[in-house]
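__Record contents__

***
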Amino acid sequence: MLPLLIVVYIGGYILMGACLLFALLGVREFFSGFQNTGLAPCGLAAYAGAAALYIVNIAGGGILWHIIWFFGVIIASLFCAAIKKRNIYNAV
């Protein structure tokens, strides 16, 4: 608990890096839950989307870049499903 409080107190890029780490761990857990149910989600698009969101935030992108990020993640997910001949339910 104490190291987490130290990271929050320091803030800045260290806190953003810790948040990115937790986001990537969350994506991994989220997709492992889907894989346990028999679905085959495209994890690459999710990992890239999570990392791209933090890049947009570090670069100071405004609302336009966040909208581009949002639609880019959706398109990448659907494109991944189309390439790997997956069911559309696996893409979502």
Q: What stands out?
A: The CA atoms of residues 24 and 47 lie 6 Å apart.
